[in-house]
Structure to design on (113 residues):
């Protein structure tokens, strides 16, 4: 049940100015794909990456953006923060063997200005 007070509180929260601008991107991992398969981050802007496993156990390492190995397991979101320092397109492979499709499990990261 939603009270009028909580509705008003939500409206106030939605109307509040954004204090910090931070990219937040959710990436899900299942056998054998990251979704979305490509994410775009901005150079020198802190980004929050939320990895959510929906099937199997996977891993991701993206040294080009300063992300050391993150293990992604089902039903346990893992949030990491990165600040990309290089422009480019980087392809990361799943870092934990997860089965027959493991070799084609890729996440492409574009870092733009
Ligand atoms: Cu894998």
């Amino acid at each position: 049940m939603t009270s009028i007070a909580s509705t008003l509180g939500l409206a106030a929260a939605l109307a509040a100015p954004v204090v910090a601008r931070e990219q937040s991107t959710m990436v899900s991992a299942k056998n054998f794909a990251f979704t979305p398969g490509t994410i775009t981050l901005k150079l020198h802007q802190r980004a929050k990456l939320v990895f959510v496993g929906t099937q199997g156990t996977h891993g991701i390492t993206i040294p080009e953006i300063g992300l050391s190995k993150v293990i992604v397991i089902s039903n346990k979101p893992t949030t990491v923060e990165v600040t990309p320092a290089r422009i480019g397109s980087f392809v990361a492979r799943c870092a934990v063997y997860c089965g027959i499709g493991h070799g084609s499990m890729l996440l492409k990261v574009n870092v733009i200005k």
Notes: The mean pLDDT is 87. The radius of gyration is 17 Å.
